[in-house]
Amino acid sequence: MSQNVAIGVDIGGTNIRAAVVNGNGAVEMKMKEATGSSPIETVLNLVDSLYSEYSQRICGIGIAVAGIIDRDEGVVVMSPNIQGLTGKNLKSEIGSRHKTCIVVENDANAAAYGEKFAGAGRDYKNFVILTLGTGIGSGIVINNRLLPVAAEAGHISINAGGKPCVCGNVGCLESYASATAIIGNAVSEIEKGCSSILRDYHNGNFYKIDAEDIYKAALEGDPLSRTVVREAGKNLGIGIASLINLLSPDAVILTGGLLGAWNIYVEAAIQEASKRAIKELYSKVKIIPSVLGDNAGIVGAAKLVFDECKICVD
Ligand SMILES: [Zn+2]
């Protein structure tokens, strides 16, 4: 068993997670802070704390970031949901404090590689992961390797016209199937006067409802909530059908808070994908939940360090 460990960091829109991960993919020590307005400072502080415990054994730092990444340079090309990261060179910012090997990757790509290394993707040579939350991210593993591409499946067009998206396009998958889409649709139906138990949540301030409120109401049988969650699932299925046709994966792995509504949201997606995808390709694909959950990004980021940093050889 390897004595070397790597630090995996996952910078998301809400939280930054950092952990020490060993050569078997197990998380040995994990910390979490709110992302806030100075994410790089927060990352440096978390990394400092982990270094103070593990200094002799750390062979590199892997950083997963929600955004478009130039992985050769270690630059965050675009990160619309994290303040102050766009244009930053994480390799040099973090490398100036810690003289070690640093790898930067997109968060959903890192999550895909984490699941390949130690989670739901272990037994699959070819798969795609979809991270279902505020937005929709994805990562692709082909022939057991992480594809070094953007893999922005959330921005596949599923509607020729349609709703505007944060990316500047209209009709993107994430505008129809994400938590944000579910909340937007529920609130707009309530504004129109549709009856729902959601009206009573948050002391009647239905503008405060979140996706969890809605899928819990759906699971309790609230008709409006069931409709919006099912509709989002159906749209997710349209996107999944395209991914199956494009990549002929062995598995589609799903992760994120919305999986709490598996029986409605994911079942609707599976039903829609089965109708739309090419039958011969659909028949060999498994649609399954992630095993690592929130840890997938940090484990994948650490695995990239083990792969790419020469000092990680025992
Ligand atoms: Zn988009």
What is this entry, summarized?
With 314 residues, this protein is an alpha/beta fold. The protein has helices spanning 39-54, 90-95, 107-118, 174-177, 179-191, 211-219, 223-247, 262-276, 279-282, 296-308, and strands at 5-11, 15-22, 27-34, 58-65, 68-70, 75-78, 102-106, 127-132, 136-142, 145-146, 251-255, 286-289.
Describe the model.
By secondary structure, the chain is α/β, with parallel strands linked by helices. The chain folds into two domains: 5-115 and 294-312, ATPase, nucleotide binding domain (Nucleotidyltransferase, domain 5), CATH 3.30.420.40; 123-290, ATPase, nucleotide binding domain (Nucleotidyltransferase, domain 5, 2-Layer Sandwich), CATH 3.30.420.40. It contains ten helices and twelve strands. It has helices at residues 39-54, 90-95, 107-118, 174-177, 179-191, 211-219, 223-247, 262-276, 279-282, 296-308; strands at 5-11, 15-22, 27-34, 58-65, 68-70, 75-78, 102-106, 127-132, 136-142, 145-146, 251-255, 286-289. The strands form three sheets. A five-stranded mixed beta sheet has the order 3-2-1-4-7, sandwiched between helices. The protein starts with a strand and ends in a 6-residue tail after the last helix. The site of zinc ion has 5 residues, from loops.
